[in-house]
Write a structure and sequence with these properties.
- By secondary structure, this protein is mainly alpha-helical.
- Helices cover about 85% and strands about 0% of the residues.
- The protein is globular.
């Protein structure tokens, strides 16, 4: 797959380069990723169906809780494994490393991400409960005011979490693509380097999310229409009205959901490529910075020698 990863680019140029790489190599990407992406789409479709406003599905799930939990758990595991597979495949297309080697690196990143997520969730939940309980028990605020304070603390912690985890986009991407990098570098030198380029990372991620949101709004229109129709129909049936949707409606909903999730997964793959180009641009900028600093020192030494 032709690419020019290490080049001095702005974040907008990284977004454009990722689009060009994705568009010009779409056949290769589809050929290498269609199976794991399909598995992801199937798993996501199951999750959607189990959360769909449908009395029949709800009653079936309530009457067979173990079967429902097993299906949802299996869907979650399949989705997780498929995500790892896709990430490793795209990394292999970029760094030309074996799939197995990249899978091991993806596994390390996923494990670290899980630990950080669980720790952050625990801290946020504890902080919210502590602030609420402290204010109410000490009679410093009414329950409603204490609840608002707890929400404010939660939002502040989420904001801080986003600020301080953003550099991990760079450090984890470098760890995935450069197999000479040790896991500890994700929290040390590479994290510091990512933090020093926080603005570039934020700009790239912000506009990537905006673009994906716009594309998803268009892609999800049929899905939203069908889910809305399903919801309205179920509300009518609860009030005693007969079903107003045709017999094939449920299968149509499954097909549209599956197709929507399949397409959406390729939007995420494009976002991965944006991360790769941002990583390459930051590495290049840092290298140029080091070279300029070295040249300035050499010039300064030559000037002092001449004096």
């Amino acid at each position: 797959m032709e690419k020019e990863l290490y080049k001095n680019r702005s974040f907008s140029a990284c977004i454009h380069a990722a689009y060009v790489l994705f568009a010009t190599n779409l056949k290769i990407i589809l050929r290498r990723t269609w199976l794991p992406v399909l598995l992801m789409a199937v798993a996501l479709t199951f999750n959607v169906l189990f959360n769909l406003p449908d009395k029949h599905i709800h009653d079936l799930g309530m009457s067979h809780p173990m079967v429902t939990a097993s299906i949802m758990g299996t869907a979650f595991i399949i989705n997780l494994l498929a995500e790892m597979w896709v990430t490793a495949v795209i990394a292999s297309l970029v760094n030309q490393r074996p799939l197995k080697a990249n899978l091991m690196r993806v596994l390390v990143i996923m494990g670290i991400g899980l630990i950080i997520t669980l720790a952050a969730a625990g801290i946020i939940n504890f902080s919210h409960s502590f602030v609420f309980s402290f204010l109410v028990s000490s009679k410093l605020a009414t329950p409603s005011t204490a609840g608002a304070a707890g929400i404010a603390i939660t939002l502040l912690l989420i904001l801080l979490l986003l600020i301080f985890t953003l550099p991990f986009i760079f450090s984890t991407t470098k760890f995935l693509l450069d197999h000479e990098v040790r896991p500890s570098a994700m929290f040390k030198a590479d994290y510091r380097r990512g933090f020093s380029r926080w603005g570039m990372l934020f700009g790239a991620m912000f506009f990537t999310v905006v673009i994906i949101s716009i594309l998803s709004f268009v892609i999800f229109v049929p899905f939203i229409i069908l889910v809305t129709s399903q919801t309205i129909n179920q509300l009518g049936m609860l009030n005693g009205d007969p079903s107003g949707v045709p017999g094939y409606f449920f299968w149509l909903l499954i097909a549209i959901t599956l197709l929507t999730m399949f397409i959406f997964s390729y939007e995420i793959i494009w976002a991965m490529l944006v991360n790769y180009y941002v990583y390459g641009a930051i590495e290049t900028k840092e290298k140029l910075k080091e070279e300029n600093t070295s040249q300035e020192k050499e010039s300064s030494n030559l000037t002092e020698t001449a004096k």
